[in-house]
Amino acid sequence: MYIYFVYFTIIVISEFFVRNDVLLKSKKKLIIYCSFITLLLILLSGLRNVRVGTDTTQYLDIWSMLTAGDFKSIDSSAELGFIYLQIFLKQYVNYNLFLLIVAALSLIPIGFIIGKYSKIYFYSFLLFYSSILFHTLEFAALRQALALSLIVLSFHYIMKRNLKMYVPLLLIAFFFHKSSIIFFPCYWLYGIKLNKNTLYFWIVLLIFSGVLSKTIFTLLNSMWRTDYSTTEMNAGGERFFTLTVVFTFIGLLNWKKIQNYPNIKVPFLIYMISSLLWPLLNTNPALYRLQYYFDFFFCLYVPNFVSILPKKSLLRILLIIMSIFAALYIILVMRTTDTYYPYNFFWEQ
Q1: With left for phi above 0 and alpha for psi between -120 and 50, is residue 320 left, alpha or beta?
Q2: Are the C-beta atoms of 293 and 299 separated by less than 8 Å?
Q3: What is the distance between the alpha carbons of residues 322 and 135, in angstroms, rounded to a whole number?
Q4: CB of 190 within 8 A of CB of 262?
Q5: pLDDT digits (tens, 9 = 90+) for 80-95
Q6: Rounded to an integer, what distance in angstroms lies between the CA atom of residue 269 and that of residue 294?
Q7: Which is nearest to 156 in space by CA: 125, 191, 195, 187?
């Protein structure tokens, strides 16, 4: 467990050196900092032992069954992007190096977007690192980790209003994980204006998604390669859902503060969708992954919102305490011993 705390501490302490111009005195300090933290995350993900992560061993089994350079005998029901990537890389690298490459491909876009669009970049990195996103996707869902990285990169083109670049990125993401198509309408959220009607509309949708959850679930289920039926097993996540609703509600109540800041408004509008999806997806815990595409933008919304609030503002203090509490809760409580602890590098037995 200690290595997770080491990373947590490094992200926090390294911010002190950047903020106070200690060691990093050039104008490129932001690039250096974001590159450094991104590299640390890549190494943590890419150098893990196959025992770390629920699906890491399963991906090794798939890797072992593929023939390097043989693109003809491919299961057409699988996401071809990931299969093609494996077959191509297997010509040149082993499985351990493959994991490192996937970690780089999935995390570099996230480091880029945080560096470009976060006003408090260490805060954004901290929230991402301590979230379900990093641990679940990087250690257990490589296909979706790559799809998420493309979606996160597409955010840049939402902000630049470049549909010609946005669409190809979403199409590529689709070939890595079909569920990513759910993110496609987010391009048009940019033009939405926040007001009291947005709050009322969100409340109506939240009630609607709860009442008609089973009907809409059937439609969303069709987006997955695997057919996930409803289950009587408790999917959990109620506390996480509650936090999502609270953070969304706080943003809607403060819509006047957010409205004129696209770097806050757009991530917030995307994040809002996560709270609307939970009632539809809690019939099967595997479907929570659909939320992940939207949950990342919490890492931009909250730090950017905090950055425009007065330092002694009660709301600022509340947001920081709640978000850090959520981060620590996830990294300390929600991680399972068998899946993530103890952490071992691939050269360790």
Answers
A1: alpha
A2: no
A3: 20
A4: yes
A5: 888 889 999 998 999 9
A6: 9
A7: 187
